[in-house]
Amino acid sequence: MAADTDARWVPIAVSADILNGTVVPAQMPKGPIAVWRAASGHLYANGDRCPHRGMRLSHGFVRGETLSCIYHGWRFGTDGVCQKIPAHPAVEPPKTINCGPVSVTEVNGVVWGAAASPVDPPVQFAGYNALRSLLISASVEAISSACHGETVEGVITAQLGGQGTILLTNVHGPDEALVIALLPTATSAQDRVKVSTALEALRRTAEGIGDAA
Amino acid sequence: MTTDAVRNAWYPVGLLSGLSVDGEDSLLLGEKITVFGSDDGTPRVESCGHILPVVQRFGHLWTSLGAPDKDLFTIPEADHPDRTLVDVGVVRVKCSPLRAVENFLDVAHFPFVHTDILGAETHPEVRDYKVEIRDEVDEVWATKVEFFQPQAAKSAGGGITTEYMYRVPAPTCSVLYKTCPPRPGEWDVIALFVQPLAEDLCDVWPWMALFDDESSMTDLIHFQQLIFLQDRSILENQIPKKLPLDPAMETPTRADLTSVAYRRWLKRHSYTYGAQLVAE
Asked: Are A54 and B244 inside 8 Å of each other by CB?
């Protein structure tokens, strides 16, 4: 049963939000992860915890094709294996030290993660691209209801700011979800701003703090 | 977990220079306490109507929820009349009190957390040093700890190799002795006194006894606050929040031998408040 969850793609971030040479935190069903883009532009992810002292690796730094922990500089490669322990420069770290690599892939400008490697790629939405993400303190049902959307397997389709919008959801808890909005690629800049504003109104409604529908 | 060892320990609860005669509410080991200053030099601490034992030392007021079986430790080196005594103040940190102490015992993080101040990324190596639990005084000691520092203290002119000694005289307190730039042969004393508010929340009271005739008190306090706030960004982002005493949870190296001894000493004393015994 765990394998079903592990091998499922989960939307975790907007591709454009992770620049080359940076690392950000993200949430998977099993816990927090660190997602990082190497200097080459390739994207990687691993558990958000350094095996040395438990520091969050999403606070770390990226150099070349490696991620380092901000606490003691332990350096990890693209396979999650520890390559260097700066306090002991002459020691080659045992290959067993690793930070738990997580599979990531990018489709429609969205970053998807999976604990195990799924056989199939994530669901694709031809002609759509990511607009933005936002964290909403409400259930997917409440979010869907607040925008009069239709929900199929965690994907909400709704009219927002006058545009047909797709909302991908990543449930963080009973009352918190990350929402990633997709719009048709040809949507004008002006309309994208309208949808973004509508998403913020949607959040207020779903969270029950005004703009009641 | 609150054991006898936890209840019977001494804890800092305020600066003697900053107590209020009207009393201020605080927490100790999750229990509400009220700390009262006084005009005649007899501050007191109350909990649920009971008067708790107090000690005035190192510029701070200390108390205990239990019946301490030994006196609060002393720092004889700090008595030298030429030293400047610095009450740094308090920093609240959302972390285990034990993680705060353990971080204080660590030099390997200097190049990455206190970059270009206490350490430089070009000099990250921690050479072998000596660690022991001194049974006669029941304290953890690390000696001959050497580290390259770009700006070891407010009074340091440039990069030097600093020698450190670390001492854990009480479960939530640590004292470090380090090379004193203006006075070769003497040691600067920097202490970290931690008040456990809860297992994952503490008030940290740094205190210093330095040889420094040049820097203003404001500059000395700001320097130490800058350093500790850099530490706080680490302490509030470690997983799990409680200090794991299960060796399988983390991966120590030779540079971490002080922390290994500290954890062993805590276990020996059944001091488990703020500790995680098994992986959760």
From this structure: yes
d(CA A120, CA A102) in angstroms, rounded, equals 16
Whether the CB of A91 is below 8 Å from some CB of chain B: the reply is yes
8 A C-beta contact, residue B103 and residue B109:
yes
Would you say domain B74-276 falls under CATH 3.90.380.10?
A: yes
- The answer to whether the Cα torsion of B154, B156, B157, B159 is positive or negative is negative
- Give this complex's ipTM: 0.95
Looking at the fold, whether A158 and A187 belong to one and the same domain comes out as yes
pLDDT digits (tens, 9 = 90+) for A65-122: 999 999 999 999 999 999 999 999 999 999 999 999 999 999 999 999 998 888 899 9
Q: Chain B residues with CB inside 8 Å of A51's CB?
A: 250-251
Which class in CATH covers the domain with range B1-72?
mainly beta
In this structure, are A197 and A109 located in the same domain? no
Contact A71 B109 (CB under 8 A): yes
Among B11, B227, B231, B12, smallest CA distance to B100 is for B231
Q: Quote the pTM value.
A: 0.94
Is A86 at the interface with chain B, CB within 8 A?
Answer: yes
Cross-chain residue pair B233–A85, CB shorter than 8 Å:
no
pLDDT per position as a tens digit, B34-74: 999 999 999 999 999 999 999 999 999 999 999 999 999 99
